[in-house]
Amino acid sequence: MFIAPDGNPASVSYSSTMDMAIIREVFSEIVSAAEVLGRTDDSIIGKVREAQPRLLPTKVARDGSIMEWVCK
């Protein structure tokens, strides 16, 4: 996000497939690292686990291509 010239928050994209894929991977690595380090009870790990199922799924178009943008 950034602040547009009119002073309002703006963004180039909203929940793009690439964004969701990166976040999904980072969350997965955080949980894996916590398991290796024996830190699965940390509050941040609980928050990550709660957020994981709320991430938007990757959508596939009729032609088999990945849909990159959220359709509202």
From TrEMBL:
Superkingdom as given in the UniProt entry: Eukaryota
GO biological-process terms attached to the record: carbohydrate metabolic process
Gene3D superfamilies according to UniProt: 1.50.10.10
InterPro entries per the UniProt record, alphabetical: 6hp_glycosidase-like_sf, GH95_cat
GO molecular function: alpha-L-fucosidase activity
Domain Glycosyl hydrolase family 95 catalytic: 2-70
Coiled-coil blocks: none
Name recorded for this polypeptide: Glycosyl hydrolase family 95 catalytic domain-containing protein
Organism listed in the record: Rubroshorea leprosula
